[in-house]
Amino acid sequence: RKGEVFMRYLCITGGPLAENCYFLIDEASGEAAVIDPGFVDDRLLAEAAKYKVRHILLTHGHFDHIEGAGRLRALTGAPVTAFRTEAAFAADPGKNGSLLMLKRPITCAVDRLLDDGEQFSVGSIQVCVLHTPGHTAGGCCYVTPEAVFTGDTLMGYSVGRCDLPTGDEAALAKSLQKIAALPGDPAICGGHGPVTRLSEEKRRNPYL
């Protein structure tokens, strides 16, 4: 039907910290965005080959959300995209946790910088950038009509830790209220754990 949007999302979990990587797919055009490719495995590569990947989106710059971004960029030609202030964080192994957790440097170069409230599209799917500092200073969510990709700001009845570089507990509390105020009952697609819904998070998440 004319004007109808056929949106689908797919979650693939992998990497050393069981990180969730998402495909946001416009069925009509075959265009897709890959959100937080913290790893690359056979399943992720097989999915990427099915679609025209136009965006590689980072919710934040921690190593477990960025490690596969460069390889995916090389395969698809899609730009790696993040909130404006998070690019330097993703490029700094001292801040992004890789030296601390893995004892080896992982870095990611960001090609496109986003601002709070900026909108772009994946096929016919409108995506809005919501700056949600707290877990990291440049963390953001990607808001669509049916799902919100929240990274480690909000994830499966929990929230991300604030004791790592650029973390801020007070900022996280404000960011959670921004998410809680979103309209409708979108799926909450967090960086770890199960996919939930906003209504379930409001009911069961003690931080909300």
Describe this protein's structure.
The chain has helices spanning 42-48, 63-66, 69-76, 87-90, 98-102, 169-180, 198-204; strands at residues 7-14, 19-26, 31-35, 52-57, 80-83, 112-114, 119-122, 125-131, 140-143, 147-151, 187-190, 196-197. The chain is of the alpha/beta class and 208 residues long. A six-stranded mixed sheet has the order 1-2-3-4-5-6, with helices on one face. The protein has a six-stranded mixed sheet with strand order 7-8-9-10-11-12. A hairpin with a 5-residue loop joins strand 11 and strand 12 (196-197). It is globular and about 40 Å long.
Write the layout of secondary structure elements.
Elements: E1 7-14, E2 19-26, E3 31-35, H1 42-48, E4 52-57, H2 63-66, H3 69-76, E5 80-83, H4 87-90, H5 98-102, E6 112-114, E7 119-122, E8 125-131, E9 140-143, E10 147-151, H6 169-180, E11 187-190, E12 196-197, H7 198-204
Parallel strand pairs: 3-4, 4-5, 5-6, 10-11
Antiparallel strand pairs: 1-2, 2-3, 7-8, 8-9, 9-10, 11-12
